[in-house]
Every structure is written in C-alpha cells, then in structure tokens.
Amino acid sequence: MILLAVDIGGTNHSVALVGEDGAVLEKERRPTDRAGGRRWMLRQLEATCRLLIEKAPERPAACGIGFGGPVDFPKQVIQRSMHVGGWSGFRLAHHMAAVLGLPCVMDNDANTAALGEYAYGAGRGSRSMACLTVSTGVGGGLVLNGEMYRGPRSFAGEFGHTPLVPGGPPCACGSRGCVESVCSGDALGKAARLEARRRPRAWSAVLRQAGGLRAIEAKSVFDAARRGHPAARALVLRYCDDFGRGLAGLIALLDLDCVVLGGGVSMAGNTLFAPLRRAIARHMPPFLPRAWRCLPAALGPNYVLCGAAQLALRYTASAECGVRSAE
Ligand SMILES: [Zn+2]
Predict the structure, then answer these.
(1) Spacing, Cα 226 to ligand 1 middle (Å)
(2) Distance 177 CA to ligand 1 centre (A)
(3) What is the distance between the alpha carbons of residues 303 and 314, in angstroms, rounded to a whole number?
(4) How far does the centroid of ligand 1 lie from the alpha carbon of residue 55, in Å?
C-alpha cells in the first residue's frame, strides 16, 4: 500500500509517497512563501500532490497531513497557523479529499511527528512515548498505549508550556518559566549570551569561536561543552538539570517507556543525552523502575511525513476521524 503524506511548515512544505513500512519513496520539498498565505499554499499543494500521484506505481490509498499549527482533530479543522495567514477555521482535509479524490486525515505536526517516531523511528517497540521537538520552541505529542492521545480539545502533549522554573524567563505564551522558555534551543542560546555578557573572560573562547556575543546560540554552547570548555559545560549541566526535572515529571506522570527528542538541540548527541539521562534519573521518584529510554529522533527531517503516512494508514484501517473522499 502507498500513502500520500503532506508536511506543512512555516519555512518549508513537503509532499511524499510513503510505503506502509515508512519508507519515503518519492519526496518534493519546497520553501513556504509566508506572504502568499493560504491560497498560494493550496495551489502548490494541489499541484505537487497531483504530480506525485502520477509518479506513484499504484494509486495512494489515503492522504495524511501534518499541519504546523493547532488542529481540532475530531472536527478536522485548523484552529490557526503560527506562520502563514488565512488558515483559521479552514477544513484542509475536506478540501484535499475533494480535490484529490482520496480519503484525507490531518493533525498538527507535533502529533504527526510523534506518530512517525512511534511507528517507524526511535519509539519502535515502546507502548507509551512522548516525542518533543526542541528547537526555537518545544513542541510535543503523546502516544499512550499505542494510540495518539490528543485530549478533549486536541491540546494534549503541549509539554512546552508546562510550568518548570518559578519566576523563570518570560515565555512566548505570556507566562514565565515554562519548559519552552527554559529548555528550547533559543532559551539555551539566550542564557549563554547572558552569561557571556556577565563573565566575558570565562566565555572568551566561546565568544571567539562564535564570532561575537550575538552569534552565540545553543549549538555554540554544546560545541564548546564537547571541547571541555568549563563555563559551557556548567551551563549545559544546569540546562539538563532543568530539562531533566521536567522530563522526569512527564515520564512519571504517564508511565512512559520512551521519550524521543527531535529538533536542532537533539543534534548535540551525547553532549546533551548523557547529562540529560543522568538528570532525569536524579529527579525521578525513587520507587519507579528505570524502565524508560530517552533517545534522539531517528527519522530526521522526514518524521512529520512518516507520521502523516502512519496517520493515513491508521485512518484507512479504522473508523478514526477523517474525511472520506467523494469517490
Ligand atoms: Zn509558555
């Protein structure tokens, strides 16, 4: 069986043909023109989907869509877009089902990514897992007992706005000290710039390497920590301690057997994962068995596409919410 998968983000959008085993057979990736809004995007999507359907060795069984913004899943309606205008209240799955003559189902991209990693990536073999994208912000999705958990208003898994540090840095959501405002890649970069301004001598090697204070970002901190730079290592340990406290709470609350981290920060490899795993273990209630794993995402930039395919596959196999085509 072949599935059509769509990933709509603020920077790029992709359409792919994906096998039911998660293999990406054909993929088209293009930049998103934010100024073009919804109408521009629909024209692009329709053309690219048609092109891939023509290339497919057999007609795709269904189409799955991962959208970069909150989606009311039962109603299959976009609540809003974080990046591109004109999407609020739009029934994208209905539209695509009518245009392509294929059954369509859509979810937000964080949930879709979680489903992709669960079915085909780092979460394979687990029963309950969280998948977090840690980059500019912190997005998340939950798979519990093998099923996507969305909550009654489709807002479940928003781990990024869980309160973590009392009186911590201000968050984009209007609150303070949320996981996102402390643990995102942007937050780590900001914390490093603050430290470097306060103690320029201790941070001189990092400042030199980055090419100035404003150029210091999360990657500069992890790179310096990997080289053994004391101030950067101390900051990474503090970051992991906060993040680990949050993750320990999440794992304990839901009895997760796996947490998968994707996004730019997860590229730091063991410089991140070794101290982070130690911090999670330290903050975990002692009576809980250490039966959890914390792993980097395995599907790379394809995790939303693979998850969209899995969503479509599950939809064709069940009475789960989605839009049947007119055909
Ligand atoms: Zn927040």
Answers:
(1) 29
(2) 7
(3) 16
(4) 43
Q: Which domains does the chain have, with CATH numbers?
A: 2-114+301-317 (3.30.420.40), 126-298 (3.30.420.40)
C-alpha 160 to ligand 1 mean position (Å): 6
Q: 314 alpha carbon to ligand 1 midpoint, in Å?
A: 32
| Token pair 């273990």: residue | 281
Report which of 38, 40, 49, 43 is spatially closest to residue 5, judged by C-alpha positions.
49
Please give the torsion angle defined by the CA atoms of residues 95, 96, 101 and 104, in that order, rounded to the nearest 10 degrees.
Answer: -110
pLDDT tens digits for range 195-239:
999 999 999 999 999 999 999 999 999 999 999 999 999 999 999
**Edge-to-edge strand list for the sheet holding 147-149:** 147-149, 138-144, 129-134, 258-262, 293-296
- Tell me whether residue 232 is exposed, middle or buried, using C-beta atoms within 10 angstroms of its C-beta: 0 to 12, 13 to 18, 19 or more: buried
48 touches 8 (CB < 8 A): no
Check: pTM over 0.70? Answer yes or no. yes
pLDDT band, residue 327 (cuts 50/70/90): very low
Residue 168 Cα to ligand 1 midpoint, Å, equals 11
- CA of 137 relative to ligand 1 center, distance in Å: 9
